[in-house]
Amino acid sequence: MSETIEEKLKNYKTAPFDARFPNQNQTRNCYQNYLDFYRCTKALTAKGVDPLPCDWYRRVYKSLCPMSWVQKWDEQQEEGIFAGNV
Amino acid sequence: MANHLQFNFQDATSPLMQELVKFHDHSLTILFFISALILYILMMTSLSKLTNKNILDSQEIEMVWTVIPAFILIMLALPSIQILYLMDEIASPDITIKTVGHQWYWTYEFSDLSKESEIESYMLPTADLQNGDFRLLEVDNRISVPMDSKIRMLITSEDVLHAWTLPSMGIKVDAVPGRLNQVTFSSSLPGLFFGQCSEICGANHSFMPIAMEVIPLKTFESWIIKL
């Protein structure tokens, strides 16, 4: 609990157990972390703060989400047709 | 892998499968005892020369044949519930691997490290097999996992329903497009384990096997760096 975000990122092994998603279906876990990364980056950049803490969400969604899903969502974001609220 | 005409389970690779095999042995023993008892009673009552048309009830025998089955049911329920809860154990995994089903091959993605890696695993055609290879089970690129590590496997599909199966670990998980199904397992034994797609998915459903190598951690580290 007293680990800094830098230490947490340095010691990152894989996405840890998330109590919000305790069951077999982890789809939302992947999608939520993807959304959280972009929302976090947008919010911290708007405040003029280093977006390093957002890297946690990036590591987690990279671990959980299939690469094809991430690619598709990234393309949708570039085209402005991504359905999520980021 | 299963041998010809194999009735029983494959040797258990994961601790969970070991528990399942033990429970199956326990349940089957009880079943055989009950079946033998019923056959004996059937034989004795049908061959008996004693007849008494006036028996209405008997408190003692009814007590016996209620209490004993209740006891047997408890003997079945207790290990069953124990294994059920053991399967749901919450543990933070050591590594996450994504398995994606396609028509008609599997891809495995490793994304925990800064470099993302992917392997495509196609069945080896029978004509390309070497001596000693297993027909319809060998693949060109096997997936490797480290021994004694908690592995989280996230399974999905790019097209139709598939199912990722490893009988020696007691794993069978549906690969559903648009959904990520999680299974956590670990193996205490190094070795090579096979499975086959378990959800009908088209013409080559029988020809997209799973081959997994469980290797020591150091060997796994040198393998994954080369991907």
UniProtKB/TrEMBL annotation, chain B:
PROSITE patterns linked to this entry: COX2, COX2_CUA, COX2_TM
GO BP annotation list: ATP synthesis coupled electron transport
Entries under Pfam families matching the protein: COX2, COX2_TM
Transmembrane segments: 26-43, 64-87
CDD domains reported for this sequence: CcO_II_C
Annotated Gene Ontology cellular component terms: mitochondrial inner membrane
Cofactor section: Cu cation
Subcellular location field: Mitochondrion inner membrane
Entries under Gene3D superfamilies matching the protein: 1.10.287.90, Cupredoxins - blue copper proteins
UniProt catalytic activity: 4 Fe(II)-[cytochrome c] + O2 + 8 H(+)(in) = 4 Fe(III)-[cytochrome c] + 2 H2O + 4 H(+)(out)
Cofactor remark: Binds a copper A center.
Presence of keyword Transmembrane helix: yes
Domain called Cytochrome oxidase subunit II copper A binding: residue spans: 92-226
Topology relative to the membrane: Multi-pass membrane protein
Record-level Gene Ontology MF annotations: copper ion binding; cytochrome-c oxidase activity; oxidoreductase activity
Domain named Cytochrome oxidase subunit II transmembrane region profile: residues: 1-91
Family recorded in the similarity comment: Belongs to the cytochrome c oxidase subunit 2 family.
PANTHER family according to UniProt: CYTOCHROME C OXIDASE SUBUNIT 2, CYTOCHROME C OXIDASE, SUBUNIT II
Functional summary from the UniProt entry: Component of the cytochrome c oxidase, the last enzyme in the mitochondrial electron transport chain which drives oxidative phosphorylation. The respiratory chain contains 3 multisubunit complexes succinate dehydrogenase (complex II, CII), ubiquinol-cytochrome c oxidoreductase (cytochrome b-c1 complex, complex III, CIII) and cytochrome c oxidase (complex IV, CIV), that cooperate to transfer electrons derived from NADH and succinate to molecular oxygen, creating an electrochemical gradient over the inner membrane that drives transmembrane transport and the ATP synthase.
UniProt protein name: Cytochrome c oxidase subunit 2
Organism, scientific name: Myxine glutinosa (Atlantic hagfish)
Gene assigned in the entry: COX2
